[in-house]
């Protein structure tokens, strides 16, 4: 049994079908990439898991239990944290307050102070900025704060929606290093990314969404080698002169 | 000079209770994005409950805060659960009208039960005053101002230090992000409405010490609450305190140097000017 099982998920947004039957799995301790062009339905998939958008039909199971129609609060309590598109930190709260409130779902379990230490060890930049209003952070720091906030909920599965969007190449490196460390701590990651090569390099498996359907799936390496994926998402063909994979 | 000083002092004292009276309106708007026209109802109910407890049991208005705070919380949370929450997907004007309806019902019920006569509440210290240097300060105003400031300190600590306080601020700043951290947004809405109403009702308790008790109490002070909240910046405690004191001083200066009759016009002018300037800013 996989950690997360999504079966034939259909979701409408603004009355229009956004997901038309999406099926995929995420196993324990696995990084799975969810790729696709703008408007393909990646964000909608993550929103449906977190109960921000209600599915029309289909099934979502986490740890063997159905979580369709289960409130966002209960989803977090069950062990799914979500780093939303655009980071969405609370700008008029300090970084420390953002992180503290990230532990709301688990406030009666374990020690929030220990979790905070662990997050500061993973993201030392946040410790330096702890007392600052989150609205004053740079784009990269905001993303780090959003990741740290999600980790404060002690998740088994982390949903990440385009965590590297709009960041400078050096900061993108930090984000991907952080994802590797999160995986090392035993947390599974469902990663939505525009940065297809980087995502496929670290993902065990990946799915490609198009028009609300999964049109391709495979291991990260398989998809990196797939000529159609290269053409569609990397803007180049696998023909002569193209660079090799795994660089 | 002494005149000016005592006008300023009295403006500051009354301004702090203005800020306290208005804060709930800003809190509810900040968290729910709902303009609570029933704020006037809670202010009026606070005055009447306090007056009734005083005339029936001889209870001191300051003691009656122990009743108006929990009662206001319960009534506010109930209004949110039973009315506002059900309309959360309708156009804002529906909620606005509904809350206006709540106020009309409360006001007319008070007319029916107690009649329209102005009443007032007298305590042993109602007419006492304290000489500070050249100034003579009214004891009830000093006490009420002190209680208002104390209320703000408690509120600020709650918002800064407790899980509920952090959750309230998070929902005000980004509701979906709050839900993604496990904050039960529906419950936070009810709590915010409850706290806002508790503040309004207890403000009524405090204000019964020096304003007359009438079913129109809420009408008189709702506009001033709007004025303070728009000037002060909705949920910003510091800003609202400054705006309340500013309004208190402006009113007392007007009443003293121009005419007492113009006191209640000040908030109307200030509100209009503030809204026009906001408009100009955003154009
Ligand atoms: N708030 C919304 N209201 C209505 N339709 C939306 C909304 N957000 C997204 N959609 C539509 O849903 C589809 C999927 O969007 P989304 O999941 O955001 O795609 P992606 O994250 O892959 O870019 C698109 O057709 C988009 O136009
Ligand atoms: Mg998206």
Note down, in words, how this protein is organized.
The complex is a heterodimer of chains A (247) and B (283). Chain A is of the alpha/beta class and 247 residues long. Chain A has a domain at 1-79 and 158-166 and 186-247: Rossmann fold (3-Layer(aba) Sandwich). Helix content of chain A is 36%, strand content 25%. In chain A, the strands form two sheets. Chain A has a six-stranded mixed beta sheet, with helices on both faces. Chain A is globular, with a radius of gyration of 18 Å. By secondary structure, chain B is an all-alpha fold. Chain B has a single domain (2-282), classed as Orthogonal Bundle (ABC transporter involved in vitamin B12 uptake, BtuC). Helix content of chain B is 77%, strand content 3%. Chain B contains eleven helices and two strands; from the N terminus they run ααααββααααααα. Chain B has helices at residues 2-32, 39-57, 61-84, 92-114, 139-161, 163-173, 175-180, 185-207, 217-232, 237-257, 263-282, and strands spanning 129-132, 135-138. A two-stranded antiparallel ribbon of chain B has the order 1-2. The longest helix of chain B is centred in the N-terminal third of the chain and has 31 residues, at 2-32. Classes of the chains: A alpha/beta (247), B mainly alpha (283). The interface between A and B is medium-sized, with 29 and 17 residues. The structure holds adenosine-5'-diphosphate and magnesium ion.
Number of strands of chain B: 2
Ligand identities: adenosine-5'-diphosphate, magnesium ion
CATH class of the domain at 1-79 and 158-166 and 186-247 in chain A: Alpha Beta
Q: Largest sheet of chain B, described in full?
A: 2 strands, antiparallel
**Strand order of the main beta sheet of chain B, please?**
1-2
> Would you identify the CATH architecture of the domain at 1-79 and 158-166 and 186-247 in chain A?
3-Layer(aba) Sandwich
The most extensive interface, with participating residues per chain, is: A-B, 29 and 17 residues
Shape of chain B: globular
Radius of gyration of chain B, in Å, reads 19 Å
Helix content class of chain A: 25-40%
**Uncertain runs of chain B:** none
The CATH H-level homologous superfamily of the domain at 1-79 and 158-166 and 186-247 in chain A: P-loop containing nucleotide triphosphate hydrolases
Order of helices and strands of chain A: EEEHEEHEHHHHEHEHEEHH
SSE succession of chain B: HHHHEEHHHHHHH
Multimeric state: heterodimer
**In whole angstroms, how far apart are the ends of chain B?**
42 Å
Principal-axis shape of chain A equals globular
């Amino acid at each position: 049994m996989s950690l997360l099982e999504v079966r034939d998920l259909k979701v409408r947004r603004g009355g229009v079908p956004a997901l038309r039957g999406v099926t995929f799995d995420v196993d324990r301790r696995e990084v799975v990439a969810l790729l696709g062009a703008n408007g393909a339905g990646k964000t909608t998939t993550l929103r449906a898991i977190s109960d921000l958008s209600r599915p029309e039909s289909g099934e979502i199971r986490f740890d063997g239990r159905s979580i369709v129609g289960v409130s966002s609060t209960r989803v977090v309590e069950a062990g799914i944290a979500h780093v939303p598109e655009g980071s969405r930190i609370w700008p008029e709260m300090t970084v420390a307050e953002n992180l503290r409130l990230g532990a709301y779902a688990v406030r009666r379990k374990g020690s929030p102070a220990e979790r905070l230490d662990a997050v500061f060890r993973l993201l030392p930049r946040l410790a330096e900025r702890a007392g600052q209003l989150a609205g004053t952070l740079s784009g990269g720091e905001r993303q780090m704060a959003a990741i740290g906030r999600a980790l404060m909920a002690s998740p088994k599965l982390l949903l990440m929606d385009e965590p590297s969007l709009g960041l400078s190449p050096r900061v993108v490196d930090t984000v991907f290093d952080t994802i590797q460390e999160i995986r090392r701590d035993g947390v599974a990651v469902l990663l939505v990314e525009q940065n297809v090569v980087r995502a496929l390099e670290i993902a065990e498996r990946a799915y490609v969404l198009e028009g609300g359907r999964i049109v391709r799936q495979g291991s990260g390496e398989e998809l990196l080698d797939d000529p159609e994926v290269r053409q569609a998402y990397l803007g180049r063909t696998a023909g002569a002169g193209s660079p090799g994979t795994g660089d | 000079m002494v005149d000016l000083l005592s006008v300023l002092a009295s403006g500051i004292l009354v301004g702090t209770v203005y800020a306290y009276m208005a804060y709930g309106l800003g809190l509810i708007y900040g968290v729910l994005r709902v303009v609570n026209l029933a704020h006037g109802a809670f202010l009026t109910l606070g005055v009447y409950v306090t007056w009734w407890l005083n005339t029936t049991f001889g209870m001191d208005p300051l003691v009656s805060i122990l009743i108006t705070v929990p009662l206001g919380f319960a009534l506010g949370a109930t209004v949110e659960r039973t009315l506002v929450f059900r309309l959360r997907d309708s156009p804002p004007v529906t909620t606005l009208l509904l809350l206006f309806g709540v106020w009309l019902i409360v006001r007319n019920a008070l007319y029916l039960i107690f009649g329209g006569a102005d009443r007032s509440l007298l305590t042993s210290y109602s007419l006492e005053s304290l000489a500070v240097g050249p100034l003579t300060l009214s004891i009830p105003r000093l006490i009420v101002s002190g209680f208002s400031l104390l209320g703000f300190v408690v509120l600020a600590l709650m918002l800064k230090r407790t899980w509920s306080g952090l959750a309230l601020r998070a929902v005000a700043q980004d509701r979906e992000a709050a839900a993604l951290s496990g904050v039960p947004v529906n419950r936070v809405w009810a709590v915010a409405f409850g706290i806002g109403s508790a503040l309004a009702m207890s403000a009524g308790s405090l204000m019964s010490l020096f304003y007359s008790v009438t079913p129109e109490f809420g009408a008189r002070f709702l506009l001033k609450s709007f004025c303070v909240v728009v000037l002060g910046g909705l949920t910003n405690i510091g800003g609202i305190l400054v705006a309340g004191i500013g309004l208190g001083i402006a009113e007392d200066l007007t009443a003293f140097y121009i005419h007492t009759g113009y006191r209640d016009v000040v908030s109307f002018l200030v509100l209009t000017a503030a809204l026009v300037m906001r408009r100009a800013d955003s154009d």
